[in-house]
Amino acid sequence: MKKGIAIGGNILVDYLKQIGFYPAEGMLSPIRFESMSVGGCVSNTGISLKRLEPLIEVLAIGCIGEDHAGDYIKETFKKNGINTAGIQTLNDLPTGYTDVFATESTRTFFVNTGASKQFGFEHIDFDRLNAAILHMGYLLLLENMDSADSECGTVLAKTLREAQKRGIKTSIDVVSEDSDRFREIVPAALRYCNYAILNEIEGGRTVGISPRQSDGTLIWENLPLICSALIDLGVSDCVILHSPEMGIWMDSKKEWIGVRSLNLPNGFIKGSVGAGDAFCAGTLYGLYNGLPPDDMLRLANSAAAGCLSSEDSTGGVGALDDMLKLYKQFAPEDDLWKC
Questions:
Q1: Most buried residue among 46, 172, 248, 329 by CB atoms closer than 10 A?
Q2: What is the pLDDT of residue 339?
């Protein structure tokens, strides 16, 4: 029987600079705190998942360079109990890295994907892949995986199809970028996707439905429409969208439920890096363990909130019981938003 969760995609080092505010072009903002940590989909989601449940088997899949940053990533993974057998070292490219400039409410990324840009179908040993779920991210930041494939549309779509042929459930995550590439790249993967876990901006841009008004206000009624359109593009099991205000789940029959985010007190938030990945980790835990959708969203919202309590991308995520206690402490009075 297949077990555990494999997470493939971007493996990076984050150089985090916590700033008070993001300045206008040509202006200055002081750096309040800086650190080095692992980053990218594989690192953030994998470590958050292990912090929630240390006994769950997590396999990292991706490419790094033959350098100090690559060594740092492998050492960090091993310390957190993540299986590194799926990581390949390339000697012609450096380990990818991100300069992250984060305020209390937002973050901006400057990325050199390095070895991750070469990560492709050929770097996954499907014959030895014994996972129940293969989660891949981030689409739009995986140059090789995002490239065209004559049969499936993209190399990533081909990868997901191969996993499904072998009885492995597939899941994707997308990077947030200011471009029109969503509708060019993401739909191919959705046709071979059991679970799509995206934020409201990524989902909206993929299907051409705006989740927010021009002033940034969430258009609540558009979230189910976005989920429905993603289902129509081929997602076979469920779509999960997350936003600062809430998480929403919709299945293939288009039944859905939403759970509002925690009411966090002033001063609780120390950083915003990795919150989406922490939400994704909570969702993957729930999918893997068969949690009801509302409980899965509560856990995912709590993991994201826990992440916000730390300057780095994983330090604030705690054990499952701790995250459930956090939810009870800061849960909104009426947390469900139902159809």
A1: 46
A2: 57
The full DSSP string for 11-61 is -EEEEEEEESSPPPTT----EEEEEEEEEHHHHHHHHHHHHH-TTS-EEEE
Q: Is the link from the previous residue into 138 a cis peptide, with omega within 30 of 0?
A: yes
- Could you give the percent of the chain with pLDDT greater than 90? 82
Q: Where are the beta strands (DSSP E) in 29-176?
A: 31-39, 58-65, 83-90, 95-102, 107-114, 133-139, 148-149, 153-154, 169-174
Coil, strand, or helix at residue 217?
A: coil
Could you tell me the two tokens for 279?
A: 């939400």
Residue ranges and CATH numbers for the domains of the chain are: 5-338 (3.40.1190.20)
- pTM for this predicted structure: 0.92
CB 53 within 8 A of CB 68: no
Q: What is the mean pLDDT of residues 322-334?
A: 93
**Tokens at residue 197, please?**
């876990």
pLDDT tens by residue, 94-139? 999 989 888 877 778 898 999 999 999 999 999 999 999 999 999 9
Exposed (0-12), middle (13-18) or buried (19+): which is 55, by Cβ within 10 Å?
exposed
pLDDT for residue 337: 81
pLDDT tens per residue, range 7-43: 999 999 988 888 989 899 999 999 998 888 899 999 9
The residue length of the chain stands at 339
pLDDT of residue 267: 85
Q: Is 294 left (phi over 0), alpha (psi -120 to 50) or beta?
A: alpha
The C-alpha atoms of residue 339 and residue 336 are separated, in whole angstroms, by 10
The Cα 19–Cα 107 span in angstroms is: 9
What residue type is 206 in one-letter code? T
Task: Assess whether pLDDT exceeds 90 at residue 73.
Answer: yes
Backbone phi and psi for residue 162, each to the nearest 5 degrees, phi listed first: -65, -40
Q: How far apart are CA 308 and CA 270, in angstroms?
A: 6
48, HSE (Cβ side, Cα atoms, 13 Å)? 38
Measured over the CA atoms of residue 79, residue 80, residue 85 and residue 88, the dihedral's sign is: negative
